[in-house]
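Students often ask why inverse folding is considered easier than folding. One informal answer: many sequences map to the same fold, so there is more than one right answer. In these notes we will look at a single instance of the problem. The structure comes first.
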C-alpha cells in the first residue's frame, strides 16, 4: 500500500512538472474561445483563497441550474430563467454578449477554467458527487454553446480539434433529397437551416445508432445532433479525468490546506433548491400521520413510523426529520408540541425540556448562531452521517440491507417486479433513480413519467402534493394516532 502511494505521488509530481514545463497551455485551450472542453488543467499558481472563492461562485451557479431545471416545465422556460437568474451571478454566461472588454473577457475565461477544475477536485471523491457535478456542468455547457454565434462555434471547433463546418448552399443542393428524407425535413427547411459536416469518427455513437446520414467518412448533422456529439465528448472527458483524480486524492500533499476546502465545498449537500417552508405553506402536528402515509418519501415515512413506535428519535433522525418537517411548514410551536407529546410517553417533561427542546429551537434558528437551516437534500442524507444499526435516519435505498428494503417496499404495496428494479438500481448506487421509480409506481404514474430525478425529500413531497392537486390532509385524532402506531 505504501509502495502504491509512493509511486502515485511520484507520478503526480512528474505530471505537475510536465504541466509546468509545457509552453502551449493557456486557460481556454487557445484563449480564443469563450467555451472550453476543459481538457487541460490550468498551470497558473493561485492563492487558496482565490481558488475557494472562484469554486464557490461556480458551485452557486451549478446549484441555480439544478434549481431551475426542477422548477421550469419546458426547456424554453428554463432558458429564459437562466438568462434572468444565472447571468447576474455567473459571468461566463455573459461572454457571448458584446460589450465585454478584452481584459474582462480574459479574466472571466480564466476563472471559468479554474472554477471548473477546482470543483472537479471537490466532486471527484464519490460517484454520486461526480454524477451530480457532470450533470450540471453539461447543462451549463449546452446552454452556453447555444448562445454562441456561429463564428464563435467555428473557432471553438478549431481550438478543440473538431473537424466540423457547415455545408455550403451548393453542397446542400447536391444532397438535398438525402438530407430531407434522412431528417424528415422539407427541402425548403434544409435549404434554410445550417447542416453541419463532421468527421464520422467524432460521431461514432450516432453512426452506430443509425441516426445520421454518413457519406465518404463525414456525417451530416442538424444542430441538435451536433450538440449531442460535443456534449458526449465533454461528459466522457469529465468522467474519466474525475475517476483518475479520485485515485490521486489519497496521496496529494495538500492534506491540511486543500482537502478541508474541498470538503467545505461539497459539505452540506448540493441539492440546488434550498427547501424552506414557502409562505402560506403550513401543516399542523395532527396532520403529520396523514401526510406521511400519502406524501412522504420512504426516508421520512420510516422515521415517522419509528417515532410513533418508539416515542424517541436519536440525534441524526431528529435533525433529518425535524428540518424536513420545518420545510413542509410545521411551525416551531407545533414542532415542539409534536416532539414533546411523543417523547414524554417515555420520559418526563423536565427531561424533554433539558435535553431536546433546545435542539428543536436551534433547528428553527432560535438558539446558538441563530442560523436558518435548510432541509437536507438526498445527497446530504446519503453522503453524510450514515446510520448505525439502531438509527432510523438515512436513505433506505442507500442504507437498508436488501432484505429490509424489500420488506419496506412490500409493506408499501409495490409490485415485486418494481421492487426488483429498485433494488437493482440501489445496488449500482442509482438511489435517485430508485426513489424516482418509487414515486412513479406508488403514485400510479407510468415509469419514466417524472421529468427530473428526485434529489430532495422535500421535492418528493411537493411533487406528490402537486400530483394529487393539493389533496386535503386528514387531522389525526389521538385514537387514530394510536391505531397507526400499532400497525
Ligand atoms: S433518495 Fe432521497 S428522498 Fe428518496 S428515500 Fe433516499 S433520501 Fe429520501
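Output (designed amino acids):
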Amino acid at each position: 500500500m505504501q509502495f502504491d502511494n509512493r509511486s502515485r505521488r511520484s507520478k503526480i509530481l512528474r505530471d505537475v512538472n510536465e504541466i509546468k514545463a509545457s509552453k502551449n497551455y493557456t486557460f481556454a485551450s487557445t484563449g480564443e474561445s469563450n467555451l472550453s472542453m476543459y481538457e487541460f488543467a490550468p498551470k497558473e499558481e493561485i492563492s487558496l483563497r482565490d481558488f475557494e472563492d472562484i469554486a464557490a461562485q461556480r458551485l452557486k451557479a451549478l446549484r441555480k441550474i439544478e434549481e431551475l431545471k426542477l422548477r421550469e416545465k419546458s426547456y424554453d422556460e428554463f432558458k429564459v430563467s437562466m438568462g434572468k437568474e444565472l447571468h447576474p451571478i455567473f459571468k461566463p454566461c455573459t461572454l457571448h454578449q458584446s460589450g465585454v472588454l478584452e481584459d474582462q473577457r480574459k479574466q472571466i475565461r480564466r476563472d471559468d477554467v479554474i472554477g471548473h477544475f477546482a470543483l472537479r477536485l471537490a466532486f471527484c471523491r464519490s460517484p454520486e458527487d461526480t454524477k451530480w457535478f457532470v450533470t450540471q456542468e453539461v447543462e451549463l455547457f449546452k446552454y452556453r454553446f447555444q448562445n454562441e454565434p456561429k463564428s464563435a462555434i467555428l473557432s471553438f471547433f478549431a481550438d478543440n480539434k473538431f473537424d466540423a463546418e457547415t455545408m455550403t448552399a451548393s453542397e446542400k443542393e447536391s444532397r438535398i433529397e438525402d438530407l430531407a428524407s434522412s431528417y424528415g425535413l422539407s427541402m425548403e427547411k434544409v435549404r434554410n437551416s445550417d447542416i453541419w459536416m463532421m468527421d464520422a469518427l467524432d460521431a461514432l455513437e450516432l453512426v452506430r445508432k443509425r441516426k445520421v446520414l454518413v457519406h465518404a467518412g463525414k456525417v451530416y448533422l442538424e444542430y441538435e445532433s451536433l450538440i449531442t456529439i460535443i456534449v458526449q465528448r465533454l461528459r466522457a472527458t469529465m468522467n474519466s479525468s474525475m475517476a483518475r483524480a479520485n485515485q490521486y486524492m489519497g496521496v496529494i500533499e495538500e492534506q491540511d490546506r486543500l482537502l478541508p476546502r474541498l470538503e467545505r465545498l461539497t459539505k452540506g449537500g448540493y441539492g440546488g433548491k434550498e427547501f424552506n417552508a414557502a409562505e402560506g405553506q403550513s401543516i399542523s402536528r395532527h396532520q403529520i400521520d396523514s401526510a406521511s402515509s400519502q406524501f412522504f418519501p420512504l426516508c421520512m415515512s420510516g422515521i415517522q413510523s419509528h417515532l410513533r413506535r418508539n416515542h424517541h428519535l436519536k440525534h441524526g433522525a431528529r435533525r433529518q426529520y425535524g428540518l424536513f418537517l420545518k420545510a413542509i411548514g410545521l411551525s416551531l410551536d407545533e414542532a415542539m408540541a409534536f416532539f414533546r407529546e411523543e417523547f414524554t410517553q417515555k420520559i418526563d417533561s423536565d427531561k424533554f425540556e433539558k435535553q431536546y427542546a433546545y435542539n428543536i429551537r436551534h433547528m428553527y434558528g432560535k438558539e446558538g448562531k441563530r442560523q436558518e437551516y435548510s432541509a437536507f437534500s438526498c445527497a446530504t442524507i446519503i453522503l453524510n452521517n450514515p446510520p448505525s444499526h439502531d438509527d432510523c435516519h438515512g436513505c433506505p435505498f442507500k442504507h437498508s440491507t436488501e432484505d429490509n428494503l424489500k420488506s419496506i417496499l412490500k409493506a408499501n404495496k409495490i409490485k415485486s417486479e418494481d421492487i426488483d428494479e429498485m433494488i437493482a438500481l440501489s445496488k449500482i448506487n442509482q438511489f435517485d433513480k430508485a426513489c424516482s421509480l418509487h414515486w412513479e409506481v406508488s403514485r400510479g404514474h407510468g415509469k419514466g413519467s417524472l421529468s427530473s430525478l428526485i434529489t430532495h425529500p422535500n421535492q418528493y413531497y411537493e411533487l406528490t402534493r402537486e400530483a394529487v392537486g393539493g389533496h386535503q390532509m386528514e387531522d389525526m385524532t389521538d385514537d387514530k394516532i394510536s391505531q397507526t402506531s400499532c400497525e
